Amino acid sequence: MLGLLLAMMLAMLDNMIVGTAMPKIVGELGGLSKLSWVVTAYVLGVAVSTPIWGKLGDLYGRKRVFLTSIVLFIIGSMLSGAAGEFAWLNDQVAPMTQLILFRAFQGLGAGGLMVGAFALIGDLVAPRDRGKYQGMMGGIMALSMIAGPLVGGLITDNASWRWIFYMNIPIAGAALFLLITFLHLPRRRTEHKIDWLGAGLLAVGITSVVLITTWGGKDYAWTSRTIIGLGVLAIVSLIGFVFVQNRVPEPILPLGLFKNANFSLVSGIGFLVGFGLFGAVSFLPLYMQTVQGASATNSGLLLLPMMMGVMVTSIVIGRLITKTGRYRAFPIIGGVIMLVAMLLLTRLDVDTSKTESTIYMVLLGLGMGFMMQTTLLISQNSVELKDMGVASSTATFARSIGGSFGVALFGAVFTDRMKEDITKSVGPQAAAMVDQGGAGFQPGQLDQLAPQVKTGLLHAIAYGMSGLFWWALAFALVIPVLAWFIREVPLRTSEDHAQAMAAME
Predict the structure, then answer these.
(1) CA distance 158 to 129
(2) Residue 221 pLDDT > 80, yes or no?
(3) Which of 253, 255, 204, 252 is nearest to 232 (CA)?
(4) What is the C-alpha to C-alpha distance for residues 336 and 401, in angstroms, rounded to an integer?
């Protein structure tokens, strides 16, 4: 269990830790225009590879595939830390481009860490007993999201930014040792046939969608040939993917799984939870640092109330499910709490106190904690044991894609409302600052502005944040509705699980 938690922590931590080091990375490697791609490349690598890792684990054995993903992650971390230090490569590839490529490679490994950890727990523990373990994993996810910005800031301030990547190596090495030594799974005999065409079409489709959400309205107009072309490519690729999945003997994502109503419902809920979680995590710190004047150095602590809500609730709910075997009520309750939290967050303005915003964030974390691990448990209980990997990867994939769409939509709404508000209060010249800084406007620059401009900008940030959560509220409304239709299917017991495992040997 310790090895699995370490590996999962690495994937989550690396997603959060890089942001605080961005200024130093750009200062050393250059390439300011490519800054967002350091994060996007990693997310893209994770999104593209997650369904593939799940299927590979089902076919070739989860331990072997999981260990392979850890090795790839270690190699990607080493290469990312060394970006720009390869003299023979610097003449052909710019240092920042090197980092982007190495981060994409690192993301390919990270995609296997999350889905592999969830699927291995599915192999080792019966659904009836799985809640307490998945509660621990939910806690690790929340802890990683808290620690990421803090650790990133600490390393950046006291050492080279390269250690943000190098620190992964000993932790991943420890996880590798523990899993090789202590993880024992029954060997399975399976006819292996990888659906490479389906995997390729899915990768192209996902990549196109991520590029649209990353570039649309920012680097390219929504009506530009590039965005329209990517949209056509995404549609054609995904239609082709569905066509192939219905005709190959070993589909990378068996579409028959979605015939199970519970599986389809919790996949939709996972998408919406990811939408709200990553949207909130991405934009709330900006509001608290600028409008409320919190220290940028301690920006990671600003998310502590929300993440503590996620962590505590995940652990408690996991133990309750293990004790009672009942789970249907939890995503319904979580959806309602999340809905209330989003409604309260629409009240954010320049006069909102830190106490008020903290209460709202705690509620949001509690709501998410009711759902994050519960939806995964329902997904795994809805499929046969042989499909455990692909069920886990689909749940993780839905949440990741939801987060990608959430950040893109929230960013567009936030920026547009900021520009609208500051144009009214200060004028179009001040609105140009939003185009230059956008959602990443540096709080430290506020004191250099004229008082009228500073006041207008703070009001615009609060106005943009309020509008962002009105949009989030519309999506959050769907969560309890979907959760209401979940059926309480009895969780498989240890005896059922052992029989299923024995049948697969």
Answers:
(1) 43
(2) yes
(3) 204
(4) 22
Determine the residue type at 55.
Answer: K
Same domain, 240 and 110: no
Residue 216 forms beta bridges with which residues? 220
pLDDT of residue 340: 93
Are 446 and 293 within 8 A, CB to CB? no
Look at residues 337, 319, 304 and name the one whose alpha carbon lies nearest to residue 374: 319
In a shared domain, residues 340 and 374 = yes
**What confidence tens digit (pLDDT) does each residue in 246-256 have?**
888 878 777 88
Residue with the two structure tokens 């519309």: 474
Over residues 381-399, the mean pLDDT reads: 72
* 231 plus 370 within the same structural domain: no
Residue 92 falls within a domain, yes or no? Answer: yes
Report residue 391 CA to chain centroid gap: 17
In one-letter notation, the amino acid at residue 254 is P
DSSP letter for 216, please. Answer: B
**Total domain count, the chain:** 3
Residue type, position 62, single letter: R
Domain for residue 254, yes or no? no
Q: What is the pLDDT of residue 298?
A: 56
pLDDT bracket for residue 438 (50, 70, 90): very low
State whether 309 and 183 are in the same domain. no
- Domain assignment of residue 36, given as a range: 1-192
Task: Give the contacts of 373 (CB within 8 A, at least 6 positions apart).
Answer: 131, 134, 135, 137, 138, 314, 317, 318
- End-of-domain residue from the set 192, 219, 234: 192
Asked if 166 and 201 sit in the same domain, the reply is no
Q: Decide: helix, strand or coil at residue 206.
A: helix
